[in-house]
């Protein structure tokens, strides 16, 4: 149902929530909204009545609103993963990520030749002769390292709500995760991520680590 509502939004320029509409300039603007923002919008009055929550969302009262906000966050993360990442990192406002924020704002939101963590080859995208992408970047090496760290995690947990938890703990690769061991990783993150999703991420990390090792073996033989 909510996915259909978002598809309608693509055609109308509006996000439909519980048969009412909230105007947005661009669907990409929804990437700026986090869980707290959605909760405020759910309580926002339209024509004198709060936007509210669809009846098929589980829970009651505050819990139902929180469940709905979580669903909306996941939909936007799945639909606009790069935009969400760019906005969340900007919100962190960390000095060491100043150039990363600048790069993402200028390259993720472009209509053509957009930067995409899922498909972009970072080394190719940031060739020294790509003056436009590197405009205003004083430390390209640091930027590349930051982008590659995010891209490695993107392969395992593309939603920022999950990726951000790992980044905050200094985890930036499949190797970091598998080095912890399955039991330790699940014990630490099953409550925050949910046991099922924590296990999915760990299994992806194992697969990615095996793939990386295989690629290294091939390169060494060549």
Can you describe this structure?
It is a single chain. The longest helix is centred in the C-terminal third of the chain and has 27 residues, at 195-221. A two-stranded antiparallel ribbon has the order 1-2. A two-stranded antiparallel sheet has the order 3-4. The protein has helices at residues 2-12, 35-43, 61-79, 81-92, 98-107, 122-125, 140-154, 160-168, 174-180, 182-193, 195-221, and strands at residues 14-17, 20-23, 45-46, 49-50. Helix 4 packs antiparallel against helix 5 (98-107). With 222 residues, the protein is mainly alpha-helical. The protein contains eleven helices and four strands.
In short:
The protein has eleven helices and four strands, in the order H-E-E-H-E-E-H-H-H-H-H-H-H-H-H.
Layout of helices and strands, plus pairs?
Layout: H1 2-12, E1 14-17, E2 20-23, H2 35-43, E3 45-46, E4 49-50, H3 61-79, H4 81-92, H5 98-107, H6 122-125, H7 140-154, H8 160-168, H9 174-180, H10 182-193, H11 195-221
Antiparallel strand pairs: 1-2, 3-4
Helix pairs in contact: 2-3, 3-4, 4-5, 9-11, 10-11
Order of strands side by side in the largest beta sheet?
1-2
Poorly predicted residue ranges: none
Share of residues in helices: 55-70%
Radius of gyration over alpha carbons? 20 Å
Q: Approximately how much beta-strand content do the residues carry? A: 5-15%
Give the structural class.
mainly alpha
- Helix and strand pattern: HEEHEEHHHHHHHHH
SS element count, helices: 11
User: Roughly how many Å apart are the termini?
Assistant: 52 Å
Major sheet details: 2 strands, antiparallel
Q: Mean pLDDT, nearest integer?
A: 86
Q: How many strands?
A: 4
Q: Tell me, what's the shape?
A: globular
